[in-house]
Amino acid sequence: MVKKPAPDAARRSEKSRRAIYAAALALVGEVGYPKTTVEGIAARAGVGKQTIYRWWPSKAEVLLEAFFDLSTQAAQEAGQAPYVIPDTGDLAADLKAVLRITVHQLVDPRFEAPSRALAAEGVVNEPLGREFVTKLLEPQLQLYVDRLHAAQDAGAVRADVDPRIALELFVSPLAQRWLQRTGPITYDYTDTLVDYALHGIGPQTPPSA
């Protein structure tokens, strides 16, 4: 009698985890954060409610982890390592490269609906907003700070520049345009943001004779 192989618990757990991610993101995009429940996520994912609570303490934790996972996938599909700003020695090229990954995410239909729902809820739901900033936004912003510090060390950015303020020159306009839908989100747009941030908008000073 042929013995059947034992079920692969790790593979089953990963399959359940993926189903929960997909269910959470779909629900928050369809009905919004307030109406998304652990029970609803479990039912849509085809798992028991206790399975979710065994891995996450709340729906917020589920959604934030699912969102992080989705962002990682989007970066990989764009051919880039997630949450990494390269240091090729060319600051403008490096910033443009990572902002293009962000554009890829922002225009991805899988990303847009849940991210808008979470962004809107974070404005009125302080605990969720704080968690979103702490777990997702702040680590990404710190990468910009580190890259700008490296550029200062290399002499590509003035030593008196505050990197935390400087990064807002290209990150904040992109976020505002996306949130308020004031214009298209394109590679050309983010490339221009970087050029304006690094070179200013005043007339170029001609080289001295």
TrEMBL record:
One of its Pfam families is TetR_C_11
Identify the Gene3D superfamilies for this entry: Homeodomain-like, Tetracycline Repressor, domain 2
User: What name goes with this protein?
Assistant: TetR family transcriptional regulator
DNA-binding region ranges: 37-56
Q: Does the keyword Ribonucleoprotein apply?
A: no
Report domain HTH tetR-type positions: 14-74
Molecular function (GO) terms for this protein are: DNA-binding transcription factor activity; transcription cis-regulatory region binding
Transmembrane annotation, as ranges: none
Instruction: State the organism named in the record.
Output: Streptomyces broussonetiae
List the PANTHER family.
HTH-TYPE TRANSCRIPTIONAL REGULATOR RUTR, TETR-FAMILY TRANSCRIPTIONAL REGULATOR
Query: Which chain positions lie within coiled-coil regions?
Result: none
Does the UniProt entry include the keyword Transcription regulation?
Answer: yes
- SUPFAM superfamilies reported in the protein's UniProt record: Homeodomain-like (SSF46689), Tetracyclin repressor-like, C-terminal domain (SSF48498)
Which keywords annotate this record? DNA-binding, Transcription, Transcription regulation
